[in-house]
Amino acid sequence: MSDLTPTRDRPGLHVSKSSPNAPATGSAVCHCGASATATGDAQVRALVAGWDANHGPAHQREGER
């Protein structure tokens, strides 16, 4: 499997949780230049909420939806 970690060349959101008892990890890179990482279930949930509200889908133009 290829590396799914987002980069400036491949922006996106990646969330991982290796087992039910392990903390989630997440990383996000937006084409606008913003980037963030998070560790722990609550922080990763906040990262995803922020991505949805302010990046990724929020940056799509009307014709791209």
Secondary-structure class = alpha+beta
Report the sheet-strand fraction.
Answer: 15-25%
For the terminal residues, how far apart are their CA atoms? Answer: 28 Å
Mean pLDDT, nearest integer? Answer: 87
- Spell out the helices and strands N to C: EEEH
The parts where pLDDT drops under 50 for at least 5 residues are: none
Largest sheet: 3 strands, antiparallel
**Counting H and I runs of at least 4 residues, what is the number of helices?**
1
Helix proportion: 10-25%
Tell me the number of strands. 3
Strand order of the largest sheet: 1-2-3
Explained architecture:
The chain has 65 residues and is an alpha+beta fold. It has one helix and three strands, in the order βββα. The model has no long low-confidence stretch (mean pLDDT 87). Strand 2 and strand 3 form a beta hairpin. The chain has a three-stranded antiparallel sheet with strand order 1-2-3, covered by helices on one side.
Brief characterization of the structure:
By secondary structure, the protein is an alpha+beta fold. Helices cover 22% and strands 23% of the residues.
